[in-house]
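User: What would this chain look like folded?
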Amino acid sequence: MEYDWIWKSAIVALAGLVLLRIAGRKSISQMTAATTVIMISIGTMIVQPIANREIGKAVGSAAVFVLFLFLMEYLQIRWDGLERLISGRAVPIIENGQLLVSNLRKTRITVDQLEVRLRQLGVANIGDVKNATMEVNGQIGYELMEHARPVTLGDLERILGLQPGMSLNTSVLFQEVRQNHHPTPVDPKLQ
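Assistant: Here's the prediction, encoded as structure tokens.
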């Protein structure tokens, strides 16, 4: 048929979507090297049948790639050494507030690029970072210095003098409001 490429394209696209859905929900930024290779291979295999008229083989090949991906992920869970070999490990790039220049070189990232990525994460000053790592998925993991950390509920409870687990509603500040009793302020001039 002259227009059979239309329905073949639709079948291949649908099969590709189903197989990629089965393969997992990882976003592109979280894909490991193995996942990236498999996804590129599936994309290549999906395009080929339109030209070669081999839809069954393309879908079968894509299914083999997905099974291979499952096998690799399973083996990485079972053996830590294999995970380290295939996916790698996080690399420290800032430790105790100090840039680890040699590790920046290993990850092929410049200080300027690190600053850009930290700004994208909401960190205004590289000096505010206590520890940072380049994760295996290419993202930056970081811990802020004590002075740069946002206030947590626990911090607020300590500041207000609350017992751990006591809600803010039971604090001294709100007892007056809940009891609808407001002590009359004493004017120091009258004393």
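The mean pLDDT is 75. If you want, I can go into more detail on any region.
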